[in-house]
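Review the following:
>
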Amino acid sequence: MWNPAQYERFRDERKRPFFELLARVDAAAPAQVVDLGCGTGDLTLVLAERWPSARVTGVDSSEAMVAEASRRAAPERVRFELADLAGWTPAAPVEVIFSNAALHWLPDHPALLSRLVSLLAPSGVLAFQIPANFDAPSHRRIDEVRGHPRFAATLAPVRRGQAQPLDFYEAHLAGLGLTVDAWDTTYLHVLQGEDAVLQWLLGTTLRPVLAALGAEESQAFLDMLRPLLRADYPATARGTPFRFTRRFVVASRR
């Protein structure tokens, strides 16, 4: 379902939240670090550089992404694993569970977070970032086209991303005994290229939609969506302005 090349198209914009999340993780010398939703693995290697004594595991549910990650030159202490993020279990408690733009694809965040906390070592840290723009024009337009009679039945079971309110994450994780740092950041990306917002969405949000539709119906879906996005996100001489809110959480057992 995932296309590494399409995802990498706006790599600079996508990796910025990773570094902003990482900067807030206070873990001196963890033994085990896990990158849940590692994608192409380049940022997993950044985690290995941050903690040079740690064994680092990148986990992703996409065969294409794990294959791309596994082709990267990496120290022996770095490995990549194909697994469903919802059911992944480490062999031993983990000092740092890090996830950049992946957990929004999983359902039931209360149960998910409780489970991830249960996998932490006594001084462990859970740090994650997820998109929080599901009420933005881009997603409203996708939902509008998803509801068209031509596509509605096929797409009804296809998962959507989701984010709980910021207050939920603080309260739930604090209730589990963790110290929580939680915040939102809204970026204003100025994307380059024709139909730039559509190209952005083709790297992430639209992947499960198009996978369910098949080639011919996917083209029809995109033909219906494209003019709506052009109207909501008009291009300028500088590029196409695109507001994007992301939700950050760092929860520590200390």
In short: The longest strand covers residues 179-191. The chain has a mean pLDDT of 94.
